[in-house]
Write a structure and sequence with these properties.
The protein is globular, with a radius of gyration of 26 Å. It has 24 helices and no strands. By secondary structure, it is mostly helical. The chain has one domain: Up-down Bundle (Growth Hormone, Chain: A), CATH 1.20.1250.20. α2 runs antiparallel to α16. Belongs to the major facilitator superfamily. Phosphate:H(+) symporter (TC 2.A.1.9) family. Its main location: membrane. It is a multi-pass membrane protein.
Amino acid sequence: MGKESLQVLNALDVAKTQWYHFTAIIIAGMGFFTDAYDLFCISLVTKLLGRIYYHVDGAPKPGSLPPNVAAAVNGVAFCGTLVGQLFFGWLGDKMGRKRVYGVTLMLMVVCSIGSGLSFGHNSQSVMTTLCFFRFWLGFGIGGDYPLSATIMSEYSNKKTRGAFIAAVFAMQGFGILGGGIFAVFISMAFKAKFDAPAYAVDPVASTVPQADYIWRIILMVGALPAALTYFWRMKMPETARYTALVAKDTAQAASDMSKVLHMDIEAETPESAQCHGDARKWELESAQCHGHAQKCDRDTQQLRNAYGLFSKEFLRRHGTHLLGTAISWFLFDIAFYSQNLFQKDIFTAIGWIPPAATMNAVEEVFRIARAQTLIALCSTVPGYWFTVAFIDRIGRFAIQLMGFFFMTVFMFALAIPYHHWTLKDNQIGFIVLYSLTFFFANFGPNATTFVVPAEIFPARFRSTCHGISAASGKLGAMVGAFGFLYLAQNQDKNRTDAGYPPGIGVKNSLLLLGGLNVLGMLFTFLVPEAKGKSLEEMSGENEDGTIEELGRQTQTFSHRTVSEA
């Protein structure tokens, strides 16, 4: 930071890692735990929903959700998330991060419970109600992306900022893992209490009436971690960077951060502090400042509106950065979410989950949940925390480029000899490669696409630009969620899931996803490296006069105070 830097911002940049950093990670991270739990737990229960609400008497296979219903149930939360990211991202820059932070959490709590209480007299009304609540659940989840990332970046010091933001995002891994583990225990408990024959033995009896409680309980439990952190989220002060750089209240920023950092921070620049010894000089400067008050106000307003979002000046300074963060997130999420959503079908194809007709409804939930839990435990969670450990050592750019590269390699390694991996003797090899794909997704672009947009844009646009980047990612997730439900279908129309037209198959889908990862590598080159740099240095706020002007305003405030005294 330059010599005109505000003391409070400099204090944050050089602060040692303290308890408040970890408190912020937990408070923001529990939101992401809930986000991941809610978004991914639906894939655990879609097969169960099909058995309960779309059973067909005499059918050789258990009931399954029709294509349009499956697409809606899986994808509607993503639609809500996209809208929430844009709306709350914009609102976070207009009203402040803290003021809207609690709203997103309450939306998640209420709509998680509402999802589990979905009501109706027939399958259509139940699915409609479920989709309604999951849209608004996604809306709340969407707001958590830009707000949590921005708050953590603005609280952090520049030495470990990447690790702190990545740690918030890494709570997603525990959310996915927690969802799988909880579904395993719930399905085991119901299986022990309400045993049933396989579908092939007795199609009707294979789905016990009590199975309807399983999916409802799994969805509703997502409200608990969010509700538990609401009180602490409301106690967090507004970030100093928003208060000082956007709200222009350096005194309040210094006061808030003094409490957080447990140190005295004066709402002055170093230059103004040197003037305390010369009372006469202060009086003369005070008179000058009073005489130019209107000019000062005009200059401040001009500075505040120096350039707007999507203005020519913004596009010149940050246009390629926003393009890089948005498109790389878009391309990555197509691959990541499509794999998550049809992983249960991959497990079935390679024999890890037996054919549906050989199991009852509760057994199928158990098998799917166990598979997702093992993948999360072996690859997803470790990948996130490898990013936390190395992001401030090797940088964001290297991790993102490496992640896209290895995802490409492993997807091609799965796809090209795909028939080889479907043979019974080669199942373990398939699982290892599939796990490595997820490991490098999370020790790679899944984390970095979240971290970087919170670091490289000016404070007054930071939340909005992160929301735009994240919404672009969710658009990719929707392509994956909707598109690959169809694309991954078998090319033989006699072997597709009920109601689906023939697709391009899993092999060609994986080849296509590998190609998208190559594009992701190319767009990574548009994103600057933020390792070890202050937010103001990355955003250009040191250069455009924002910090210097705030320093002059603080001096004027101090001069007036001394003069009036």
